[in-house]
Amino acid sequence: MKVFVKSDVGKARENNQDYYYISKPEDELPLYILADGMGGYRGGDIASSLATNAVRSYIESNFKNTVKEKEEILALIQNAIEYANMVVYEKSKDAEELIGMGTTLEVCLIYNNKVFIGHVGDSRIYRIRKQFMRKLTRDHSYVEDLVQDGTITKEQAANHPKKNMLTKALGCNAFVEPDKMVKGFLKDDILLICSDGLTNMLTENEIYQIITEDVTVCAEKLVQKANDSGGYDNITAIIIQNS
After folding, report:
1. What angle (nearest 5°) sits at the alpha carbon of residue 223, between those of residues 222 and 227?
2. I want to staple 36 with a disulfide (CB 3.0 to 4.6 A). Which of 58, 76, 104, 144 is the partner?
3. Residues of the domain holding 198
4. Structure letter (DSSP) for residue 96
């Protein structure tokens, strides 16, 4: 597998509240995590880093003893996310400025030509296969609910004034229910894990064109294009090619 990543503060924010983890090539467990934090000047930083590190440590500590079947691996991911939620939620009680902090969370564990996914919030995971890019996750947002029930179109959602209003985030409540799924990850497939600082600035077609033009430099080009388009938020793109 080849992995390319770029994270940038963007043009409007003072600090980067996105936080990610990517496995090293020599690691036995291919694990990729992205969190987009929210809440105050430091709250988002703390929430995203705590969540990422909690999920990573939980999965790495328990994967060896997990039965390598679909339901058991998905249960491991859910338990890891629930553990991370507890860690962030409890931390939010430590100081007044941390109250209400939270984060999105994307977890991708690749095993046996499959990607096991855990998802909370409006960061996204896409898969490119044979000239087609498919969004694997469903945004936990007010606007996405409007699209799903037919109240507004996908095009209207892109410019909706409440498009950043989340219906679910990690660490804001004592319990969170993540979305879980398993998808095939075959040779030449490409995964994109990204924060909304990318998808709010670029269309899916623009993202697809940049990734398929040259995967080795696409992370830098995606971030640059998002900044050229305004860079209103932190931007993170993780690209994993099953070479």
Report:
1. 120
2. 104
3. 2-241
4. G
